[in-house]
Automatic annotation (TrEMBL):
The lineage of its organism: Bacteria, Bacillati, Actinomycetota, Actinomycetes, Kitasatosporales. Pfam families: DAO (PF01266). Gene3D superfamilies: D-Amino Acid Oxidase, subunit A, domain 2, FAD/NAD(P)-binding domain. Residues 45-405 form the FAD dependent oxidoreductase domain. This is FAD-dependent oxidoreductase. Coiled coil: none annotated. Keywords: Oxidoreductase. It comes from Streptomyces huasconensis.
Amino acid sequence: MSSSTTHTDNANGANGPVNGGISFWYADDGLPTAREPLTSDATADVCIVGGGYTGLWTAYYLKKAAPFLRITVLEQKFCGYGASGRNGGWLYNGVAGRDRYAKLHGHEAAVRLQQAMNDTVDEVVRTAAAESIEADIHQGGVLEVAYTPAQLARLKAFHETELSYGEKDRTLHGARETAERVRVAGAVGSTWTPHGARLHPVKLVKGLARTVEALGVTIHESTPVTEIRPKHAVTPYGTVRAPYVLRCTEGFTASLKGQRRTWLPMNSSMIATEPLTPAQWESIGWEGRETLGDMAHAYMYAQRTADDRIALGGRGVPYRYGSKTDNDGRTQPATIEALHTVLTRFFPQLTGVRVTHAWSGVLGVPRDWCATVTLDRATGLGWAGGYVGSGVATANLAARTLRDLVQQDSGQAGPTDLTTLPWANHKVRKWEPEPFRWLGVHGMYATYHAADHRERTTHTTTSSRLARWADVLTGRH
Ligand SMILES: Cc1cc2nc3c(=O)[nH]c(=O)nc-3n(C[C@H](O)[C@H](O)[C@H](O)COP(=O)(O)OP(=O)(O)OC[C@H]3O[C@@H](n4cnc5c(N)ncnc54)[C@H](O)[C@@H]3O)c2cc1C
């Protein structure tokens, strides 16, 4: 890493990246003005805890379906404080747990889930346009590249699997065709799907908050919920009573009373470069602005931003002991350095390019790595999440499903295509107590990094068996 990118301890140093401060997206678009907190006890028809994509899309679709509903959103900081204001801006059709759902409910059920995800990408693009939410959306699809023989073998297998779930429009490319899209150093192949778009995460989440407020939804910010009980959301400033209380707190869920081992808060970290010059872009290509990923075990994800930077993410410190979550996105220097190494491995000509921003966030990982959306009809408690890093589109599908589950439960509608998807009302056991959680996750990522290193240096064509064992041990596959 060049010395110009290492001054991370001096958060806003002249040359070093801005470290934390929530995310680059906020540096770019500005932090929001805080909305009023809750000041006393209140009632609502539906109380939503958490103002990220899941909570806000749920408020949106419920209010659109039943404008008379009194909906209150309670947000601990400000809408978009969590992963929804920090992510890589991959709006894409991946959903965590699909293969397991195929095993549990049959292949056809999983094909329906996949089809719903494909449609969800279009739904987000369409609704953002309909609501005049300008979120730098560019529907260039998703390109995933392989740059070792073992990655190529995984890529081909992945491609075949996706085809088997009905993705007939996915295409496989060799080295030359890959380079015609994006010139990733050493890339030997890629797979591309049209079911993806790049977006500006903060512009989307701010636009959603504005939209639901204009529809008549009440949003209280700076209002942490300490406990959720049937028909009650408890905060230090008062309790909101509602027949339906929906938990939309994803990676932060562990901080709620009784939820410490429900979903593990996994870290993901990102860097953004300064805007690249036209000559640098000429050398890279990437005119299609596809979201870009790889087939490493500890994979990377990237986008070409609307202002012509590269924003690139991956796993740094994967998990903090005791399910700790946040310090406004501050990121360890070693993680920034590791992401910079990935950047220059992909594009060696960018070695001297400045990294201007670095940040991190948490996402929710259930014990079986399967995203879920649930409404418990006995208590009126609902939740959605556990998206394992694929939540930008999935949150929208979850929200429409929560809408349908609430409408079904309150007698306003019957079962729908969404309420019968295999991830609805899925149950999973909790994570182990510490130190087993910490050991399991750190062991898994240490194994992934070792496997990636081995595959890069030995040019083996077979995927590391160790990485597969790590997946089995941690319940991932
Ligand atoms: C760095 C990073 C990169 C990612 N990149 C991608 C990507 O490119 N594509 C993709 O599909 N997914 C990505 N993800 C995952 C995706 O961003 C999330 O799955 C998605 O944003 C989850 O939305 P959410 O609303 O469920 O959760 P969040 O956005 O985390 O929202 C939860 C909200 O609840 C609030 N909250 C928490 N606890 C409480 C409480 N007790 N009381 C009140 N409020 C509370 C939080 O402040 C937060 O605003 C990424 C995640 C991270 C961290």
